Amino acid sequence: MHLLVRENRTIDEQDEAEDLGLPSADLVVLSFTESDLLGLRYAHARLQADAEDGQTLPSLQVTHLARLRHPMSVDLYLETTLEKARCVVVRLLGGVEYWRYGAEELAAWCREHKVPLALLPGDCVQTQGAQAIARDPAAIGDYASPAMDDEGALAALSTVSAEIRSRLTGFFRHGGPQNMMKALRLMGAVAGLNDDAADQPADLPSWGLYRTVQARSVVAFPADAAKAFAVPDLPEGATARAVLVFYRAHLLVSDCAALDALADYLAAQGCTVDLLFVTSLKDAAVASGIAGFLHTTQPDIILNGTVFSSKNQNGISPLTSIGTPILQLLQPNATYAVWARSPRGLSRSDLAMQVVLPELDGSIATLPLSFREEVQTGQPGRREPYLPGIEQTAARALAWIRLRKLPADEKRLAIVVSDYPGAGLQQESGHVAHAVGLDAFASLHSILTNLKQENYSLGSGALPNQKDLTKALTDAPVQSLLSVEDYKKLTAKLDDSLMAKVHAAWGEPEQDRAVQNTQFCLRVLKLGNVMVAVQPDRAASAERKALYHDPDSPPCHAYIAFYLWLQHVWRCDALVHLGTHGTLEWLPGKAAALSPSCAAAALTGAMPVIYPFIVNNPGEAAAAKRRLGAVIIGHMTPPVMQAELSADMQVLERLIDEYAEADGLDPRRGALLRKDILNQAARTGLLSESGVRPGDEDEAEALARLDAYLCDVKDLQIRDGLHIFGKPAPKAKALVDAIEQACSGSECSPESQPDYLVKRLEIERKIAASSSAEANALGDALAGRFVAAGPAGAPTRGRVDVLPTGRNLFTIDPRALPTPSAMLLAAKMEKLLLTRNLQEQGEPLTHLVMDLWGAASLRTGGEDMALALRLMGVTVQRAAGTGHVSGFEIIPLPVLDRSRVDVTLRISGLFRDAFPDQIALFDQVVSAVAARDEPLEWNPLAAAVKGLEGEARIRASARIFGAASGTYGTGVEKSLQQGGWQTQADLGHAWLDGSAWTYGGGRDGQQDADTLASLLGQANAILHVQDHAETDMLESPDNAAHEGGLAAAAAVAGGQPAQWHGDTSRPEAPKLRATAQEVARVVRGRLANPRWIKGMQRHGYAGAAELARGLDALHGFAATLPERFDQQFDLVFSATLGNEECDAFLQDTNPAARAAMCRRFVDAWQRGLWHPKSNSVIHTLETSAQKQPLASDTAKQKNRTVAP
C-alpha cells in the first residue's frame, strides 16, 4: 500500500523571516495585543520599584506575535529568546489558527525542555468560556462554539494545570496594573522562582465613563444599572455632544493620549465628549450598558475607537441604535515611519480590523489619530498622537454635527456629476454626467424635487425641468468661481509636497486652460443654496481618460480650485457625488488611512461626502468609502429584459423548428430545409458568429451550433433603460424573474421550487422598497443622520441580501477569500474550461493567462482565484471558527488525475490594493508547485524553473503581474482614447508596458516585461470571466483595454492562444465562449437591438451617450482582437446612424454623442477595421460629420464666461 503525500503550507509563510535578537529571560510573554505587553512591562517596573533591597525578581521578556508569523522567525526565536526561559505565556487573539505553526513548535519545545507553557484565549467569549469550564467541566455545553473548539486546542497544547490557566486568563482579561502584577507573581511561582500567593483576578468594571469635558477620572457604572447614573450636563458654552467608545485596555496602561487630545480639540470647538471604556462591544452586558448611555445622552456623533464589527450574532450593534452617524477612529499598529512610506496606508490586519469589518456597522472613515512607536524590536511602546489626523478627524465630526443641527433651508449643498470621457477622438464626446447604470440627469431632477419638498433653499424661481438641467450642465457658459490670487492663498495651506507635484506636472496656475481673465471658470449651476456642478477635468483634455484612474498624476489647478472653492467660498455643508463614479477617489495618495499629502483628503477636507453608487460594484465603492470618508448609498441596477431575436433571426428560428418537425418524417424535405437555413444564416453572418467555419463541420453539426447560438442571443439579459435614483423600477417583473431564477440555483423553472411563492413575494417586496429607501437614505445623510449598512453585490446573481438598496455599502472580509462556495463553483468552470479547450484546440490546457479583477472577486467571494488554484491542483485550508484562509494543500497528481496548469494572473489595480493576502497566497502556491518532484510533462510550472537558481529562478517563477504600484489600468486606454496607434502591435506593446510589474516573491512593483512576454508567448489560452449579467463586455471601452489588450499583447509575444470569455452570471451553469463570439453575441443581443435602443431613448441625453459608449467599446475590440468585426459595425450603423428615427433621436438629445459616433465609424473605416457592405455608408458619415460643429468650436462656445 502506498500513501499519497499531500503537501500543506500555512499562509504565515508569506511574511518575511526575521531574527528579533531579543535576549532570553525567566518569564516570556507573547501576545498580539499591545496592551498586554505594555501592561506587563509597566507592572514589572512597578514590582522592581517596590522590591526590597537585595530582592531579585524574575526577568521578563515580552514580544509582539505579529513579528513572529514566519516559521523561520519562530525557529530563531525558540533558539535564542527561550534559551533561559522558566515559564512561557502566550495570549492568542483569534485563537490557535492565527499562529498554528508557532503554537505547535513552542509546545513541542516547552515539553522537550520541561518549561511550563500556558496558551491563553484572547477574546471575550473564549475567555469567559475557558474560566467557566475550568470551574465546572460540565459547563462546556453552555459555551459550544467554533471559538470554544479552539479553546480546547489551546488547553491541549498547554502544559500548566487548568486552574493555573484559568487564573492567568482572568488576570489578562481584566487587565490593569494590579492584575498584571498578580500575573507576574503567578508566572514566577509556576517557574519555581517565588511562592504562589493564591491571588485571584480583581474584577474591574467591564465598561464605564472615563472622562467628560476636562475631568480625567474614571466613573464606573454597573452593567445592570445603565440607567441609574446621572448623565453629565453639557457644560456652559457647549453646543453639541459626542460619545467616544474605546477599549478599557488603553485606559489600564495609561495609553489614552491621542483620545484625550481628540476630546480636548472637540471641547475647544464647543463639543463636549463623553469617553466610554469597554472590554468588548460584543459582551451582552457591555452592549446593553452602552446602548442605555447612548439612548439617555442622545449624542450628535459617535466616535468608535474599537475594532472589528460591533454587531452581535443577531446582527445588532449598540452603536447603531439611536440613528447617529459613527466615525471610525484609526490607530494603526505601525510606526509613523512605516505608515508614511506605505502606499496602502494600513497593514493587512489593520485594514481588516479597523476598516473592512467596522464598515459592516455603517461607519465613516477618518484619518489616523496615533501611531505605535517601538521601544525595542518586537516591543511596542505607547501611542504617539498624530496632530494632523486628530484635527482632521475632529473637523469631520464637527461637520457631521453641523449637518445634523442646521435647518434645511440654511444648508449649503453641492451636487456633482461626473464628466467621465468616452473613448472619443476629441474632447466633446457627449458623456457629461455619465454614471454606470444611472440616468444622472433624471436622478438629479428627482433629487432636487425632493430637496425642495424638504424645505431646502433652491432659489425663488421654479425648479428647472430635466431638459433645462441637462442644457445648463452641457451647453451653458462657464462661470468664474475663484481668482488665481485667492487660489494661491488657499493652496498655501495645503501640504507642500502635494503642491510641489502639482506645479511640477502643470506649471503655474495662470497657465491652466480654465483660467480666463485671472479667474478659474467652470461649469456650475446655482439654485439658491444648492450648487450643481460638472466635476472638472482632472487633467488636460488629451490626457483625461488615461489619467482617470492614475493616482500618480496630481490633479490640475482648476480641479483643485473647484474643491477649495466648495470648501472655503461656497462653504459646502455636504457634497453629493451622483453616480458611479468620479475622479476624486482616484487622486494621488494612500488606499486607506490617508495623510494630508493625499490629494483626496486635502480636497474633501472635512466635508461630509454622500455618494449614490450602483449596488453591484463593491470594489470601487470601497475605494470611495475609504479614501473620501464617504457614505456610499447603494442604488438599484437598471431594469432588465431578455434580448429576444431580430426579425431575420426569428425567421431562422421558425425554420429550425420546422426542420425539427420534418427531420425523420420527411428526410428529403429536412435536407432542403437544412441547406436553406444554413445558406440564410451564412448570408446574414450568423453562421460564422455561431462558430461554424466553412468546411470544418457537417451540416447537422453546423445546424446544431446555429440553433444553440440563436438561443444564446435570445436569452441574453440586457438593460431596459437606466435606473433613476429614488424612483420605482419600471417593468420590475423581469428583474424579479431574473433574481428568482438565479436564486433557484438550477436550470429548472423556479415555479418547481417548494417555496416559490414565498421567495417571489419577498423579492418583489424588497425591490418595491428600494426606491423609497434610496430617497430616504439620501435624506437621512443630508440631515446628519445614520444610514444603515448593507452589502454590495449583483442582484441578478441571486444576491437578494443586497435588497432593498438605499443602504451604506460594505464589502466582505478579504481574509475569507476564496470562500468555500467559490471553491465549489469554480470546479464547474474548471471542468468546462479544460473540456472546451481540449475540444477546440485539440490538446490539453497547460499554460493559461487570466485577467483578474478586484470588484468581481468581492462580488463572487473569489471565484476567479479559486479557479486559478484548482487548475494548479491546489485547495485551501481554513482557520477553525473564522473560516479565514490559513493555508493551502497541494493535491497529489494521482488524485488530481490530470496535468497541472501553469497559471499566470494579470491583476487589476483594485485587486492589488484590496487583496494582499490572496497575492501572497498565490505566490506561495506557485513556489510550492514549482518545487514539486513530479514528471515535468505533468507539471509545466516545475518544468519552467528546472535547473534554475537564485534570481533566474525567481524571475522564471513570476506569475502575478499588474500595473505599477499606485497606478491603475492597462496602458491601452490612453492609446485607444488618443488614437495615437497605427497597428494592433502598438496596442499590444502598450498593454505589456502597462502590465509588466510583478507582485509576490519579494519583488512587488518590479518591472519585468520580458518574463511577462515569455509567458504570453507560450500560453495556449487566455481567459476573462464575467461574473454577472447586469453588464457586458461592450458596456465600456475599458473592457476592450483589458481583454482585447491581453490578446494583442499575446500576439506581440508570438503566441496564438485561444481567447476565452467566461460567463458565471449563473454560477451553477457557467458558459464559455470565444471572446470574438461574445462580442458578436452582445452586438446582436444588445447594441444593435431595437428593444435596447428604445429603452435608452427614454433617457434622452444619457441614453444617447450609452449608444456612443457601446460603439467605442466595439471599436476597441476591433482594434485589439485578431478577428474582423465588419458585420458588427454594419449592424450597429444600421441600427443607429443608419436608422432615421434613431439618428434623429441622437441629433435632438445629444448631438455631441452623435458627432462622436460619426468620428468613430469613420476612424474604423480609415484604419481598415471596418469594410462597410455599402459604399454609401462612408459618404453618409462624412457628409454628416461635416455638418457637425468642430469640437474646438464647440468648446470655445461652451467656455464663454458669465459673471458669477
Automatic annotation (TrEMBL):
Region entry Disordered, spans: 1182-1204
InterPro entries, per the entry: CobN/Mg_chltase
Biased composition (Polar residues): 1182-1191
Residue ranges occupied by any CobN/magnesium chelatase domain in the UniProt entry: 171-755, 760-1175
Pfam family, any one: CobN-Mg_chel
Protein's name in the database: Cobaltochelatase subunit CobN
Native organism: Acetobacter indonesiensis
